[in-house]
Write a structure and sequence with these properties.
One of its GO terms (cellular component) is plasma membrane. With 501 residues, the protein is α/β, with parallel strands linked by helices. It is 34% helix and 24% strand.
Amino acid sequence: MAESPVLELRDVEKAFGSVIALRSGTISVDAGSIHALVGENGAGKSTLVKIVAGLYQRDGGVFRLRGEDVDFTSTAQSKAAGVAVIYQEPTLFPDLSVTENIFMGRQPTTQFGRIDRKAMRHEVERLFTRLGVTIDPDRPAEGLSIADQQVIEIAKAVSLDASLLIMDEPTAALSGVEVERLFAIARSLRDEGRGLIFISHRFDEVFSLCDTVTVMRDGAYIATSSIAETSVDEIVHQMVGREVTELFPKLEAEKGGPLLEVEGLTSPGVFSDITFTVHAGEIVGLAGLVGAGRSEVARAVFGVDDYTAGSVRMGGSVVPKRNPNAAMRAGLALVPEDRRKQGLVVEAGVGENITLSIRNRLAKLGLVTTGIENRAAREWASRLEVKSNALDTVAATLSGGNQQKVVLAKWLATNPRVLLIDEPTRGIDVGTKSEVHRLLSQLAQQGMGILMISSELPEVLGMADRVLVMREGRITAEIDRAVATSENVMHAATHSSEAAA
């Protein structure tokens, strides 16, 4: 008799009022395998995971764990049954040590009833050795990298003998080296006989790590395939229900005069002597490895962060530093890297978020009525095709792609001349990526200047007219679109010698 799958979901349903989040959630995860779960934002992946994690209860369908019918009513029940979810951004107790975080709520005690700190530390050392990582068990969790925080969550899961680990977009904020370490740990857990679900929008990672892939679309199960017997094109077609022939729909645009001129911008220890120009009608890509200083440059240009030397000019006029309002008046807009923490008021509605940057302009006698706000917001929500039932829909409930569209709408509503956009498609599905790329291309064609920061080389090469490459706080190369390749961009990002333009 064949061994039962670690997890079996079949035709699971979940609705929130009239909104159907999951029509037929179906996945079967075997012990000793890594199973990819992919789909566009809004496909139902998160709802499915939350049912397994005990955050939601299903309305219908089959839910089995190791062959037994289950229906969790809390996360504690799910964890006790051997389920662990590793999120993109773990939530550890910052003031507690690594060891205390791993054993929170279940500390071993001595025969005298005291917490056995020696036994805890010994177990953590054993766990880290088993996972092949080096982290000080006694250091506070505060200040740990996202990658190390994820390792701590994995160690906690292993110590609880979890048979099913779900990794939800775990690599979005990791460097290449950190991703490889995470993958090595995932493979070792698979080889121990655990079942893993890996959720990602990065197909290279899915094909590198996973054994099987399940595709979802519009809350429904579409297909399951062996990784060895499918392709990126086939998965993309299953995800979007159509052929995505142009992920990077680059439109021809006439290059105009200089709009943004940055000269000699310096912030000691962060970036140095940053000089570049963005013209009307062009998309300038800012590439480099994580930590190269790209986001910090954008924040300084927009006036969020300070700098000690250099200047920022818009249309020839100096933009005062450390003054975002002055930057906005000059025609600059910044779409930040972290849309949830820096771009949105997640508990506010779609309409309120979109009009946040133009409320002063909308005010009549110091007041903004709901009608005025909704008219302005509706125009931009429609233009960016934000998929939301109503303008009062809370932003936190939107998919990642729709959250990004709301942030874009908020800043485009200010009618900027230059758009600074940091990681425009991070965590966004392939279909929405194409929509965002098309929008950026249209904006450039209409005469806007765009500085696009991206860690995804295909995005930089597919969308940028020129590529500026940063390494350790300096621009090491400026490469024209016609000659830009993955090789010369990566060379400039990893070598101190300047590459030829």
